[in-house]
């Protein structure tokens, strides 16, 4: 019967195409007379005759018909998979120099094209002048002399200004933009100031996005630590407030600035940050705020990226490093701030963070400082929670709380204060947090309660615990002295 089948098809099994897309699921058994008759009379339906099927040879059609008659199933992969064009290519490997150069050139041209789509200063000035004509009370000399805060335009005037603007400005005169900025004016008017601020903000965001993308070596929409370091090191000469920094301090300044980005925007420690997340944060605003030559002293002190702040943090690090080896031990870090952090907490901190022969480097110290100075932030609570979660099971139970509070009790005894029972503190913590489980506190419980900072202070900082215990007296004293 096998010989008959071969003579009928004219195809020898030994010459079967090895790249055929369909394989019979069941073993190829000899055909009996009934099956052979059905195969000879089999005709595919018109809907089954796709262009790909026409290209099949007679042997492939025979195998498909045989599989259907025997109740077998065709592979689930659709035939169209063989003709769908490739739409994704992996980035070239480091060894592919030519492919990398080609990719870099393509990205460079793409970013250059995007740059040409941005509004230049002349086009922004044109929009401002057209808005001035509508307000009739603004000076045309410079942006700083123009007060548009009291000017309003309706939708007809909005459209009219758009028609008089250049082609690249049309994106800002869409109905959706007017609706987005409309603040409920009873006469349907839009604030000229809010519109112009919107235009300037969008232009700045696009410019900054292109500027950051230049440092995106991988071309994947995110920046690694080295990419962000390169961006900041080239930005330093353009910031007047950083002119006082010596070149020898640049590496420490860059490290200080980059750590804030990664601590607050990369809490999962992936080693990269999306460019969109950088733009959505306020960090670039703070960094570029240093362009102002007349920045007030109090603003410089509160701005993490200022020279004043960077020198303050680095100076504290040097002051703590008593043996001058460039690293901090547990005993040296215990003098941080007022020296009120418990030894229990510091010991666990050094077990959790990356250390070198049991000592902390400047980068790990920056993470610690950022957590201490931003205890209300979710990322800081994540930092502390990793330390407090001794068993790494995702929650804090009574054993965790008792273990860390013993450090507070020990410092209270050393200072001669009355003993505080853990049971009393335990009840207060659970009353504040109100966790979903009666005896467990998760990170989400701390974040949701809004009391995460207070709980952290009670467990790791004697000064924080004292302020909590005496909060009523402190509030009364502030009221008596006129402070809110």
Automatic annotation (TrEMBL):
Compositional bias annotation for Polar residues: 1-20
Subcellular location: Cytoplasm; Nucleus
UniProt GO molecular function: calcium ion binding
Gene3D superfamilies: 1.10.238.220, EF-hand
Name of protein: Serine/threonine-protein phosphatase 2A regulatory subunit B'' subunit gamma
SUPFAM superfamilies assigned: EF-hand
Secretion signal span: none
Domain EF-hand: 376-411
Any single Gene Ontology cellular-component annotation: nucleus
Coiled-coil portions: none
Keywords from the UniProt entry: Calcium, Cytoplasm, Metal-binding, Nucleus, Repeat
Keyword Repeat attributed: yes
Chain segments carrying region Disordered: 1-23
Pfam families documented for this protein: EF-hand_13
One Gene Ontology biological process: cortical cytoskeleton organization
């Amino acid at each position: 019967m096998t010989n008959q089948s071969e003579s009928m098809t004219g195809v020898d099994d030994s010459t079967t195409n090895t790249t055929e897309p369909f394989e019979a699921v069941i073993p190829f058994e000899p055909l009996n007379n009934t099956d052979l008759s059905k195969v000879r009379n089999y005709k595919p339906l018109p809907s089954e005759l796709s262009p790909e099927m026409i290209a099949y040879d007679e042997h492939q059609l025979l195998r498909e018909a045989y599989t259907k008659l025997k109740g077998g199933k065709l592979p689930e992969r659709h035939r169209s998979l063989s003709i769908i064009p490739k739409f994704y290519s992996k980035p070239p490997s480091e060894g592919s120099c030519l492919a990398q150069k080609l990719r870099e050139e393509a990205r460079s041209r793409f970013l250059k094209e995007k740059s040409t789509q941005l509004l230049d200063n002349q086009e922004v000035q044109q929009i401002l002048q057209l808005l001035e004509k509508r307000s009739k009370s603004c000076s045309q000399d410079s942006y700083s002399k123009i007060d548009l805060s009291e000017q309003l335009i309706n939708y007809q005037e909005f459209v009219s200004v758009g028609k008089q603007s250049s082609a690249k400005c049309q994106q800002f005169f869409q109905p959706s933009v007017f609706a987005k900025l409309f603040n409920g004016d009873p006469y349907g008017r839009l604030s000229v100031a809010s519109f112009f601020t919107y235009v300037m903000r969008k232009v700045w965001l696009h410019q900054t996005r292109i500027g950051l993308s230049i440092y995106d070596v991988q071309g994947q929409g995110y920046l690694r630590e080295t990419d962000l370091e390169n961006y900041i090191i080239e930005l330093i000469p353009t910031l007047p407030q950083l002119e006082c920094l010596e070149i020898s301090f640049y590496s420490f300044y860059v490290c200080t600035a980059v750590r804030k980005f990664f601590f607050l925007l990369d809490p999962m420690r992936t080693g990269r940050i999306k460019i969109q997340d950088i733009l959505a944060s306020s960090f670039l605003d703070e960094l570029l705020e240093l362009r102002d030559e007349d920045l007030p002293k109090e603003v410089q002190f509160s701005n993490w990226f200022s020279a004043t702040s960077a020198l303050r943090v680095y100076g504290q690090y040097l002051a703590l490093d008593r043996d001058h080896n460039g690293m901090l031990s547990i005993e040296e870090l215990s003098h941080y701030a007022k020296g009120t952090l418990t030894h229990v907490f510091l010991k666990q901190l050094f077990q959790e963070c990356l250390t070198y022969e049991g000592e902390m480097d400047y980068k790990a110290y920056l993470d610690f400082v950022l957590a201490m100075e931003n205890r209300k932030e979710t990322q800081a609570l994540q930092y502390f929670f990793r330390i407090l979660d001794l068993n790494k099971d995702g929650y804090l139970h009574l054993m965790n709380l008792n273990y860390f509070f013993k450090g507070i009790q020990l410092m209270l005894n050393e200072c001669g204060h009355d003993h505080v029972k853990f049971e009393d503190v335990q009840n207060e913590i659970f009353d504040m947090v109100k966790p979903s489980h009666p005896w467990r506190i998760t990170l989400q419980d701390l974040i949701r309660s809004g009391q995460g900072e207070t709980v952290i202070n009670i467990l790791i900082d004697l000064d924080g615990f004292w302020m909590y215990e005496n909060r009523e007296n402190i509030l009364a004293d502030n009221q008596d002295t006129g402070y809110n």
